[in-house]
Amino acid sequence: MTPTPPARRPDAAPREGGDVSTRLAALRARVALHDGQAAPRKILSFGVHAVDGRLPGGGLGLGHLHEVAPEAEGDEAAALGFALALVARRLAEVAGDALLVIARGHPMPYGHGLAGLGLDPGRLLLFEAASDTDAYRALEEALRAGGLSGEGLASGAGGLAAVAGLVDAGLPLTQSRRLHLAGGRTNGLLLVLRPAGADSPNVAATRWRIAAGKALRDRFGCIERPCWRVRLDRCRNGRTGDWLLEWDHAAHRFGLAGALAGHPPEAGAVGPHAGPS
Amino acid sequence: MPGHPDDAPLVVAAGEATGLRLTAVDARARALGLRPGEPLARARARLSTPLSVHPSDPEADAAALDRLCLWAKRYTPNVAAFGAAEARDGLFLDVAGSSHLFGGEAGLLADLARRLSANGVPARMALAGTPGCAFALARYGAGGLVPAGGEAAALRDRPVLALRIEPEMAVTLGRLGLRRIGELMDAPRAPLARRFGEGLIRRLDQALGHRPEPLVPLDEPAALGAARGFLDPIGHQAVIVATAARLMETLAPRLEAAGLGARALRLTLHRVDGVIRTLALALSEPTRCSVQVGRLLDLRLDRLGPALDAGFGFETVRLDVVGTGPITARQVDFSGGGRAAASASGLADALRQRLGRGILRLAPHASHVPERAEAVEPWRVTRVAPHHPVRAGTGLLRPLVLLTRSEAAEDMLAPDGPPQRFRWRRRLHRVAHADGPERIAGEWWSGATPTRDYYVVEDEAGRRLWVYRQAPLPMQPPIPAQTLTPSQAAGWFIHGMFA
């Protein structure tokens, strides 16, 4: 009878056996466990290998807090466009509505422009908050609303498909933690869009900086698709990166704006990538 | 007031253009011959006794009248405060159907008089078949009980002012010899209506009961209600919420039997010291769910915070269903479409209770002018969401953000075509690419909006803006050039930003 090895802790990573990728996955799962949150149940993929490969689980974790900021002053419209493109991509995948919370002073989006971005304005609810404090309260309330109708967690279909907030100042630590906790119970996409130059430490899973980029032209030389310089500044359990992304409003798909104009390359892997588990 | 004995006649005065005038006097001042409307200086000059003068406070008067109205709901749910025509100093009780609970109409009047005088409220009251007749007898008569059908006889000797008409009209009527209501009744109606308008005839008919006079109740009567009293007063928020949820549970079967749900609820909290607080809850969709009602109330109390002021606690909690709506079974499709609407309405209610604002949505309008093509309107539960026509593929781009007011572009360099360089919001934009023009003509049928030529411009950094040039109206006289800045004269404006 061979002596049995001492009992391991259940979350300990396997030391031997398996190739590198399985060991890496196990390690990631262990880190995520210590993060106070299970690995993301579901993700929203970009549909672009280069971006998804850097994000944990292959996409933006749903129910996690993601921070979007313009690169510089003057890029606010680009950042709003990027955030709403993500919302449009989420709405294309699932039924349900999206809520946009707008702190005082920010402009309302224009419905015809939203329709041009591939986001049906009929599925977008707007809430105008009097202050940042009210905006965060509204966001929290929206995350809880799924639980109210009694079908939040069980079916995954209740609640809102996406919740986005436009705030006046940076995302503070306390508010981000509250949103993180409230978001952990939902399957919605949770974005906070803040102005440029208002960095503050918080618990957001990712931070994106968006700058305007040259739009894609059609064959007549007219502006056809928006294009953004996207910088993944911070990514928990992932790697950072820098891309030039274009947005296809009809297919609700991002693409790498490559050297060949008019041909979105590397957008081949269509459809959401499977989650880790 | 220093120097005034406590039993000095008490008067209330308000400032007017010509000085202070009395607005109310107490019984001792009335005995001295003082009447409301007299200048304070004259009253002081002709009386030797010192007066205790208080400034008038109409808001506190209105609040006190409201409190009295709430108290009077012990007699009938239908209580209305006097409006502007009745000088806002009294209240109507519609006791039809509730007087037998107090030993008939005479018993009710006696009970009311006894309770009011016990509380130190001097009052004159009359009970009649119409509000107009009761008002006339209380204000310009001895009050008391008018038997059914006796309105005309009771009003005959009252002055015309008792009909709640303007004093000027009463003076004019007096000049014509019509001083008593009885004389008005006997006078031919057509010349009266021609001379004094419909208002006089309407008031006369209302007082006599020939024409209905609906009262505007303090708050709308409830369809259903339930109350719960406590031996030990409660003040904790969680207890109030739990009580309200329990009350909703008792109401739910009655609503269900009628196939209805509550659309509007009113929670009434009776404080130990007689103060009554009411909270209104409005819902986007009818509900019978006590959990939902409790949660919304919790949010509302969160928002109120210490403003609720429980004091020594509430002894009675009452929940009334003020508005109802039918609950229809909703088909839930496989994609969860029905659930999405339900969660949106729940969110709308929660935000309205928590933050006091409702959800908005964008609704398209049929117009070519960009700022008129859309309106922000309150969100409502609808089966069909408003549909924005999709312009994708037409090459006509619309901005993601439309500025509420288009802003003038400065230092515009646009020789004969699309702009090449301009300054906007203190930033110089060098145009790398411009699409356009897209001409949007003004709507000639709704005001003079000039024709505009829109360009989508992209500057060297890749920021895309919607810029237009205002074409001059052919039939408009030219605006003098010196009143405009050069760029305004050229008519270039920024109207929106693209993603």
Structure overview:
The complex is a heterodimer of chains A (277) and B (499). Chain A is of the alpha/beta class and 277 residues long. Helices cover 26% and strands 23% of the residues of chain A. Chain A starts with 19 loop residues before the first helix and ends in a 21-residue tail after the last strand. With 499 residues, chain B is α+β, with helices and mostly antiparallel strands. In chain B, 30% of the residues lie in helices and 27% in strands. Chain B has 14 helices and 20 strands. The radius of gyration of chain B is 33 Å and the shape is extended. The termini of chain B are far apart. The model of chain B has no long low-confidence stretch (mean pLDDT 84).
What features would you highlight for this structure?
heterodimer, A: 277 residues, alpha/beta, Rossmann fold, 9-stranded mixed beta sheet, 13 strands, B: 499 residues, alpha+beta, 7-stranded antiparallel beta sheet, 14 helices, 30% helix, extended
> How far apart are the first and last residues' alpha carbons of chain A, in Å?
36 Å
Oligomer: heterodimer
Secondary-structure-based class of chain B equals: alpha+beta
Low-confidence stretches of chain A: 147-157, 259-277
Shape of chain A: globular
N/C terminus separation of chain B: 69 Å
What best-fitting shape of chain B do the alpha-carbon axes yield? extended
Number of helices of chain A: 6
Please tell me how large the radius of gyration of chain B is: 33 Å
Q: In the CATH hierarchy, what is the class of the domain at 44-205 in chain A?
A: Alpha Beta
Helix and strand topology:
The complex is a heterodimer of chains A (277) and B (499).
Chain A: H1 20-34, E1 43-44, H2 49-52, E2 60-61, E3 65-70, H3 76-93, E4 98-103, H4 111-116, E5 124-129, H5 132-148, E6 162-166, H6 173-183, E7 189-193, E8 206-212, E9 216-217, E10 223-225, E11 227-235, E12 241-248, E13 253-256
Parallel strand pairs in A: 3-7, 3-8, 4-5, 4-6, 6-7
Antiparallel strand pairs in A: 1-2, 8-11, 9-10, 11-12, 12-13
Chain B: E1 10-16, E2 19-25, H1 27-31, H2 40-46, E3 52-55, H3 58-72, E4 79-81, E5 91-93, H4 104-118, E6 126-127, H5 131-140, E7 144-145, H6 151-155, H7 167-175, H8 181-186, H9 189-196, H10 198-208, E8 224-234, H11 237-257, E9 260-271, E10 276-287, H12 290-304, E11 314-326, H13 337-355, E12 360-364, E13 374-378, E14 401-408, E15 410-413, E16 421-424, E17 427-440, E18 452-459, E19 464-470, H14 486-490, E20 492-497
Parallel strand pairs in B: 1-3, 6-7
Antiparallel strand pairs in B: 1-2, 4-5, 8-11, 9-10, 9-11, 12-13, 14-20, 15-16, 16-17, 17-18, 18-19, 19-20
